[in-house]
Design a protein that fits this description.
The chain has 20 helices and 8 strands. By secondary structure, it is mainly α. The longest helix is centred in the first third of the chain and has 42 residues.
Length: about 575
């Protein structure tokens, strides 16, 4: 997968560079290569449009409703004639604040989110100071003063003790919420994690406040007081308590914020999954992303990938020198694999696939391999260009191992490939020896169980998913259906290949009995250089930075055949 790595350096031999330059074909033009750049641009523009539309549909109603609720509650509660039912208006204000919190999105810029968190933390802190100074301390002092003082106040001492103690406990929760928000601000946590912390803090504040007011209300009912405090009737408190407890319980639910925002974003329409790509691109303009992707897209012949590259998951910046510049149409496969699978199994499976490719196309496959093709000094730009890297590859090659479905980067690569126009028949599955196709069980996939080596990457990828779906369960349904379709295509190819082998065996037995014997394992094919010829002319395109390498000339099939024709001389 395309996740970042950490590590010591190594060196690249001159032989490796010569083999790279001799093996990577000149930019070629496949049948659909002329339209592909425009298709990439169209998909990114669609993703950007869906992202903006989603943000507007979430923010516009929440800002309007929340502001109206807060303003109405403050105006009505200030009316002296309505003071006995002021609890209703207090509940209205709390509902308005809760709705306004929905305007904070994980896709927002970190500066905006941090400013909002700081403001809310200060409000919570002031609320805690107010409760301690004007509610808890006076009531507890009155309860400690003795029965005479309590009777003079018109309530028993236990009432004032309960009143003050409940709000003191709520104030303690307020201070804890402020500490949690402050810690997230200081540690520079990812935006999605900041939003999660905000909702947990809001939920804790609402719940503690609801329980404190509920205790005060229960005490008022117990002593038969008509007013909980002068001018405030106890009749309105049930509404306030219920609203605070319900809103607090909703806020601490991890899925509530996601589902509420997805519902607002849909509003009669299906949530566009392309909006997830907009979250991955961030604030960058489409033209900027296209230009930087054209500059950063790299590729390399599969013959330069060694076992050592799989064996050690460490950064080696010198491996970038093994690659050459890639163009739309000359990258055969995007290699997707899990770094937590056995390196020997992955290496053997890749070499088996490579030998079949060379036998069929008489040249080395050109691949995008994360460890070599990502510039480790500029990872963030490479990750933002990931949709273009995937769309520039003819096919997606999945080296499937036991941990593949548990790695979030691998699943996001598959999702982006499909979202950028890829189809199930353009995905090649390779299974290491000892891992049959039955090891792929689509319905067992669950994004909640996926992992990332880097916590910041995990939150960033989950933000991408949340932006395009109503919830993680919807994403699970999509990926399960895609995996099922890929598995079905793989079984169909294997079935055709098996039928072709049996047909060839019958032909050899009838014509030459000795040809049907199993030959020893053939040595690994040597790299085959690309066809030579005059340099083709450039094609003027609508996206010059992205397609400057597209040229008319010899067309490479790039592995578009649905199945690999078996070599009768190879081992059966």
């Amino acid at each position: 997968c395309a996740g970042p790595m950490t590590a010591p350096g190594s060196w690249v031999t001159g032989w490796a560079r010569r083999e790279r330059d001799a093996t990577v074909p000149a930019p070629s033009r496949r049948i659909d290569a002329v339209d592909r750049p425009n298709d990439i641009r169209a998909r990114l523009e669609k993703a950007r449009l869906q992202g903006r539309r989603r943000d507007f549909r979430i923010r516009a109603p929440t800002l309007l409703v929340g502001a109206v609720a807060i303003a109405s509650g403050m105006v009505l509660s200030a009316q002296p004639s309505l003071s006995p039912i002021s609890s209703f208006f207090t509940a209205l204000i709390q509902i308005g604040i809760f709705i306004l919190v929905l305007t904070v999105l994980p896709t927002d810029g970190p500066i905006r989110v941090r400013a909002i968190l700081f403001s809310i933390a200060m409000l919570i802190f002031l609320g805690a100071v107010f409760q301690v100074g004007f509610i808890s301390v006076p009531r507890l002092r009155l309860a400690a003063a003795g029965q005479a003082s309590c009777e003079a106040a018109g309530s028993p001492c236990w009432f004032h003790a309960l009143y003050g103690g409940a709000h003191a406990a709520a104030s303690a929760v307020y201070f804890v919420a402020v500490a949690i928000l402050g810690r997230q601000l200081v540690t520079r946590a990812p935006v999605r994690k900041l939003v999660q912390s905000l909702w947990r803090a809001v939920g804790a504040v609402y719940l503690s406040s609801g329980l404190a007011v509920g205790a005060r209300m229960a005490a008022a009912f117990a002593i038969g007081a008509a007013d909980v405090e002068p001018g405030v009737a106890r009749a309105g408190l049930p509404i306030l308590v219920t609203s605070l407890v319900v809103l607090g319980a909703l806020a601490i639910q991890p899925s509530f914020r996601m589902r509420a925002q997805a519902w607002l974003a849909a509003r009669g329409e299906a949530v566009g999954s392309a909006a997830g790509l907009a979250a991955l691109l961030g604030d960058r303009r489409v033209d900027t992303v296209l230009n930087q992707a054209a500059r950063l897209l790299r590729c390399m012949p599969a013959s330069l990938i060694s076992y050592d590259h799989f064996a050690v998951n460490l950064v080696d910046a010198s491996l970038y020198g093994l690659t050459t510049r890639g163009y739309i149409g000359n990258v055969d496969v995007f290699l997707s694999h899990s770094w937590h699978d056995d390196p020997r199994d992955k290496w053997d499976a890749l070499q088996a696939w490579r030998r079949a490719f060379v036998r069929k196309h008489q040249r080395e496959p050109i691949v995008w391999f994360d460890k070599c093709c990502i510039d480790q000094s500029n990872i963030s730009l490479n990750l933002a260009s990931l949709p273009i890297f995937l769309a520039s590859s003819r096919r997606l090659l999945i080296v499937y191992g036991p941990t593949y479905m548990s790695r979030l980067w691998c699943i996001v690569e598959l999702f982006i490939f499909i979202e950028m126009g890829g189809k199930a028949e353009q995905v090649d599955l390779v299974f290491p020896e000892g891992h049959p196709v039955d090891a792929l069980v689509p319905h067992e996939f669950d994004v909640h169980l996926t992992k990332c080596s880097n916590d910041a990457d995990r939150h960033r990828l989950l933000t991408t998913i949340e932006s395009g779906f109503r919830g993680l369960d919807d994403f699970n349904a999509l990926i399960r259906s895609v995996l099922a379709a890929i598995k079905e295509q793989h079984l169909q190819r294997e079935g055709k290949a098996a039928n072709g082998v049996r047909s060839l065996e019958r032909h050899h037995i009838n014509g030459n009995p000795r040809a049907a014997t199993v030959s020893p394992r053939q040595p690994e094919p040597k790299p085959v250089p690309p066809p030579t010829g005059p340099t083709p002319a450039r094609i003027p395109m609508a996206l010059p930075p992205l397609v400057m390498g597209l040229r008319s000339g010899r067309v490479h099939s790039g592995g578009r055949s649905a199945w690999r024709r078996p070599d009768p001389g190879a081992a059966v």
